[in-house]
Amino acid sequence: KAGVTQTPRYLIKTRGQQVTLSCSPISGHRSVSWYQQTPGQGLQFLFEYFSETQRNKGNFPGRFSGRQFSNSRSEMNVSTLELGDSALYLCASSLRGQGKDTQYFGPGTRLTVL
Amino acid sequence: EDQVTQSPEALRLQEGESSSLNCSYTVSGLRGLFWYRQDPGKGPEFLFTLYSAGEEKEKERLKATLTKKESFLHITAPKPEDSATYLCAVGNRDDKIIFGKGTRLHILP
């Protein structure tokens, strides 16, 4: 069974630009969660989508948004990039939801904002 | 407020020197406790899920245990390739997951 895939793996942007990251979950998984990971803050939860609906949301500004498609693939968008948005962005999929089942993580997208 | 605290923050061991990592939690209605291993620049790799106090799971040199307040990840006779950050997380009754900040483990050859 293929694991969680994320594209692109690396991204370099400049301040003010916007970026879209993509995540394909494990086949059959309906929940996709997104996380931001930085050395100082650890893993911080962004949001969770289940069957195309946002089910949970973390404490991030509205510049961070996401969506999920009918095939469970998910995208995350960050608008008006700031230097502090440089991080490893991880997505994770699970069958029924992040708190209910084991989540499986993708390799991450390393975003650098210059 | 639900929270997860992992200790120690960092641990250096000699190869073969067994030890334990701790994950203390406060959660409203534990749905599950999850252990992950993460190598630098990579996504966390799933290790174990524990659902109720008294449960234990093993995989190679790792053994995870769970009580009502904490979980331990026991590492027996570790090897340098066990060096990584180990993350603990809990799922609560609202189906949200809370991660600890991790323990950085370094095994010296």
Polypeptide structure, described:
The complex is a heterodimer of chains A (114) and B (109). Chain A is mostly beta strands and 114 residues long. Chain A contains no helices and eleven strands. In chain A, 39% of the residues are buried. The model of chain A has no long low-confidence stretch (mean pLDDT 94). In chain B, a hairpin with a 5-residue loop joins strand 9 and strand 10. The chains are: A mainly beta (114), B mainly beta (109).
Structure summarized in a few sentences:
Chain A is mainly β and 114 residues long. Chain A contains no helices and eleven strands. In chain B, strand 4 and strand 5 form a beta hairpin.
Order of helices and strands of chain A: EEEEEEEEEEE
Average of the residue pLDDT scores of chain A: 94
Distance between the termini of chain B: 41 Å
Q: What's the number of helices of chain B?
A: 0
Give the total of beta strands of chain B.
11
Shape of chain A: globular
Name the average pLDDT of chain B.
95
Distance between the first and last residues' Cα of chain A: 37 Å
Shape of chain B: globular
Using only C-alpha atoms, the radius of gyration of chain A works out to: 13 Å
Describe the structure using short key phrases.
heterodimer; A: 114 residues; mainly beta; seven-stranded mixed beta sheet; four-stranded antiparallel beta sheet; 11 strands; 0% helix; 53% strand; B: 109 residues; six-stranded mixed beta sheet; five-stranded antiparallel beta sheet
Would you spell out the secondary-structure blueprint of this structure?
The complex is a heterodimer of chains A (114) and B (109).
Chain A: E1 5-7, E2 10-13, E3 19-24, E4 31-38, E5 42-50, E6 53-57, E7 64-68, E8 74-78, E9 87-94, E10 104-105, E11 109-113
Parallel strand pairs in A: 2-11
Antiparallel strand pairs in A: 1-3, 3-8, 4-5, 4-9, 5-6, 7-8, 9-10, 9-11
Chain B: E1 3-7, E2 10-14, E3 19-26, E4 32-38, E5 45-50, E6 56-59, E7 62-66, E8 70-75, E9 84-91, E10 97-99, E11 103-108
